Amino acid sequence: MTQIPPIEDAYIDSIIKSGGAYQPSLTKTQGVKLRELVKLLRDRFEQEITTLPAIIGVKAQNFRLSRVYITDNFGGEANAVSISAGELIHFEYSNADEQNVWQLQPLVHGGLAPEVLYYVYCKCSKTDQSATYIVTTEEIKPEDEPGFYMFLAGVLYPALDGYRDSDFTNGVADITGGRIKIGKIMSRDGQTGFDLDNGTIFGKISFRDIAGSLKEIKEVDAVAAKALKDAANAQISATTANTLLANVADDNLLMPAEKQDVLKEWQIIQSEKSVLIAQAATYTVAVADFDLAYSNLNTYISPLLLSMTTNSTIVGTTLRNNFKSYYDAKIALLKAVSDKAKQLSDAAQSTATGAQTSANNAQISANTAIALLADIANDNLLTPSEKPDLLKEWQIIQGEKPIITAQGAVYSIATTTYDNSYNALNIYITPLLSSLTTNSNVVGATFRTTFKTYYDAKVSLLKLVSDKAKQVIDSAQSDASAAITNAANAQVSASNAQTSSNTANQLLADIANDNLVTPSEKPDILKEWQMIQSEKLVVNASAGTYLLSTSIFDIAYNNLSTYVMPILANMVVNTIVVGATLRANFKAYYDAKIALLKLVSDSAKTLVDNIQVGGRNYFKKTTTIANGTNMPVGVAPGGINIKNDFGLLEAVPRRLLD
Question: Is the confidence at residue 612, as pLDDT, over 90?
Answer without folding.
Answer: no
